[in-house]
Write a structure and sequence with these properties.
Largest sheet: 5 strands, mixed
Distance between the termini: 58 Å
Organism: Anopheles stephensi
Pfam families: Dcc1
Shape: elongated
Strand order of the largest sheet: 1-5-4-3-2
Structural class: alpha+beta
Number of strands: 15
Helix content: 25-40%
Radius of gyration: 33 Å
Protein name: Sister chromatid cohesion protein DCC1
Family: Belongs to the DCC1 family.
InterPro entries: Dcc1 (IPR019128)
Length: 419
């Protein structure tokens, strides 16, 4: 490697080095490449060139020209988002210096003769081709090419796939919950976000962003993304469900157009259309018809009952919940996932509201709040509140093993606070 830019290595220099290094000419190809370090005046050591380690997914996205971007506000860790995945970006050191050299040739390109493998079967891909194995004529270095180092790397960015960071959707949209056109005069318009603005702000991929909007039941109203006020959302959904009974439809034979027409003049079209899309899926029996998702409908009714933070005896709650649901829907404890907890360990079995979206985004702070709310948790109970911190390689059980103590009670593994 050459430090002085005033000196160019010659063929004689190369042959001298080969001789001093006691290298076998048979193992050398025709072209030698002299590496030159950049000088400050050449501006080769560009600060805007970074080394990024990628997996097969990102490599495939790059090859197809798919869009990807870095996201991160002032107090956030940077993430890289492809169309469908989110990666946490971390800086890592390289044990040895890594040189970026433009147009550096590999073995085959440095030989003017075909590179052959010897009969011995030993892998010597750098061997120079010779006409006759017994010949004294040997192809050796007869040309020197200059190669300049563009940048010297001492670190690189490594990527780790993570769960999408949805919390910002909630934090930003809660400030402007939609409660009907009659209450819009109370909303500060400057706090509203268009779809693209919110997508650029939230640390997740585009596909995950769509899933996040569905998860938190956000819809577009007048070109702005909005979450609905719980009371208003409950009222709209109740009206939509009443259309089913009025038309005596089968649960999986709901007509969307008729439903939207029935709501004209009562609820704004965008609200009805958005809520219908969130709470329904296409019918398997009749592809042009729809059916309401029991899990989402039951969860909203349960959230409405639990929203005031009151405790309910489990039997009383289940009766109240079932009676509130429209005909054809059945209450199931599984539908309380992430919005309420059942505590059967206390003297009186009870149900209380605990919305995952209300908990701290700091893992230790969240665990502290969970264990102050309930002393012992099984995996099924605590998983909805911890899974946002999991990754494809570190699951919920691994997180709990590290940050909690576990014990077995009547054959069931329970998790308790470490402190």
């Amino acid at each position: 490697m050459i430090y002085s830019q005033d000196y160019a290595r010659s063929i004689d220099d190369v042959r001298t080095i080969v001789r001093h290094a006691k290298l076998d000419h048979k193992n050398l190809t025709n072209v030698a490449q002299a590496i030159y370090y950049p000088t400050e005046s050449e501006h080769h050591d560009l600060g805007n060139i970074k080394l990024l380690e990628v997996d097969e997914h990102i490599l495939g996205e790059l090859k197809t020209g798919s869009e990807m971007c870095f996201k991160g506000a002032l107090n956030e860790k940077v993430v890289l988002c492809t169309e469908s995945r989110t990666y946490e970006v971390k800086e890592a050191e390289i044990s040895n210096s890594l040189l970026l050299v433009k147009n550096l040739k590999l073995a085959q390109a440095t030989s003017r003769s075909p590179i052959k493998s010897p009969k011995s079967g030993v892998n010597t891909s750098m061997d120079s081709s010779i006409e006759e194995e017994d010949s004294e004529t040997i192809d050796t270095v007869d040309e020197v090419e200059r190669k300049d180092v563009v940048k010297i790397f001492h670190d690189y960015f490594e990527l780790r796939q993570v769960k999408p960071k949805y919390r910002k959707i909630i934090d930003l949209l809660r400030l402007t919950r939609y409660a009907g056109p009659e209450n819009e005069h109370l909303i500060e318009r400057s706090l509203l976000f268009r779809f693209k603005q919110l997508l650029d702000t939230v640390q997740c991929s585009k596909d995950e962003f769509h899933e996040g909007l569905k998860k938190y039941r956000a819809i577009e109203i007048e070109d702005r993304v909005r979450m609905l006020d719980l009371e208003y959302e409950y009222r709209v959904l109740t009206l939509l469900l009443s259309v089913v009974s009025e038309n005596s439809w089968e649960p999986d034979a709901i007509d969307k157009e008729v439903t939207l027409e029935a709501m004209q003049g009562i609820i704004p079209y965008e609200v009805v259309d958005g809520i219908f899309n969130v709470y329904t899926c296409r019918s398997e029996r009749m592809p042009d018809r729809f059916q309401y998702r029991e899990d989402l409908v039951c969860a909203l009714f349960a959230e409405k009952i639990l929203q005031h933070g009151l405790k309910f005896h489990i039997d009383e709650f289940l009766v109240t919940w079932q009676e509130a649901l429209p005909e054809g829907f059945e209450a199931n404890e599984q539908y309380l996932r992430g919005i309420g907890i059942i505590d059967r360990e206390g003297s009186v079995p009870c149900v209380r509201g605990l919305n995952e979206a209300d908990l701290p985004m700091n893992l230790l702070g969240r665990l502290d709040m969970l264990f102050r709310t309930k002393e012992r948790w099984n995996l099924e109970q605590i998983e909805p509140y911890i899974e946002c911190f999991a990754t494809p390689t570190v699951g919920v059980t691994s997180i709990l093993a590290k940050y909690t103590r576990s014990l077995v009670v009547k054959g069931v593994r329970m998790y308790v606070s470490k402190h």
